[in-house]
């Protein structure tokens, strides 16, 4: 649930907006075979099953914990399953394109960490070529310092980074309205 959005537009409208945004993200990833959709709460499997764009996509409930713990766990699971490059993408960036996934996967051939910077100071994508739990520890999630904290943690560990293009998340009514205006070309 988009709580900040729901605070101004109501729960029902926020849910409709979220479904539109998430659908745009899933559509942009539709060309990928190996996708795992991590969802919460853990009993929402039936509700998110329709998000699969390909039969090969898998559904997995998120673990407990803060955002960093959940992302670190998702990376662990993917690498344990044999992945060599893993991307995590949120479902609040409707302007993501299929080419962003391609660029990120290509960049992970030469970089340890790939980040898609968000205009609010966070990131809309993070990619790793191997697990790095320390990137998710001590971060003040949902603040304007998430990207800079992550870049500092990567630099301190001498990890190479590659940044993708800047995109806007949709977290508030103002974010949604700005997205609608950009999409309309006004």
What's the structural blueprint in terms of helices and strands?
Elements: H1 3-9, H2 11-28, E1 36-39, H3 45-48, E2 58-61, H4 67-80, E3 86-89, H5 98-107, E4 113-117, E5 123-128, H6 146-156, E6 161-163, H7 173-184
Parallel strand pairs: 1-2, 4-6
Antiparallel strand pairs: 3-5, 4-5
Helix pairs in contact: 1-2
Describe this structure in words.
This protein is an alpha/beta fold and 186 residues long. It has one domain (3-184): Spore Coat Polysaccharide Biosynthesis Protein SpsA, Chain A. Helix content is 41%, strand content 14%. The chain is built from seven helices and six strands. The strands form two sheets. The chain has a four-stranded mixed β-sheet with strand order 3-5-4-6, with helices on both faces. It has a two-stranded parallel sheet with strand order 1-2. Helix 3 (45-48) links the parallel strand 1 (36-39) and strand 2. The radius of gyration is 16 Å and the shape is globular. The chain starts with a helix and ends with a helix.
């Amino acid at each position: 649930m988009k709580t900040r959005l729901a605070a101004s537009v109501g729960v029902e409208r926020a849910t409709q907006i979220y479904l539109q945004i998430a659908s745009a993200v899933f559509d942009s990833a539709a060309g990928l075979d190996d996708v795992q959709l991590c969802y919460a709460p853990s009993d929402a499997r039936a509700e998110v099953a329709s998000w699969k764009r390909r039969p090969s996509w898998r559904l997995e409930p998120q673990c407990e914990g803060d955002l960093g713990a959940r992302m670190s766990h998702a990376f662990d699971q993917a690498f344990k399953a044999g992945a060599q490059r893993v991307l995590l993408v949120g479902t609040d960036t409707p302007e993501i394109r299929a080419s962003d996934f391609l660029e990120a996967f290509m960049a992970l051939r030469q970089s340890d960490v790939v980040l898609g910077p968000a205009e609010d100071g966070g990131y809309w994508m993070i990619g790793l070529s191997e697990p790095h739990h320390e990137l998710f520890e001590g971060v003040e999630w949902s603040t304007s310092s998430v990207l800079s904290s992550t870049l500092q943690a990567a630099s301190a560990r001498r990890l190479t980074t590659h940044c993708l293009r800047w995109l806007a998340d949709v977290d508030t009514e103002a974010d949604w309205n700005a997205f609608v205006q950009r999409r309309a070309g006004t």
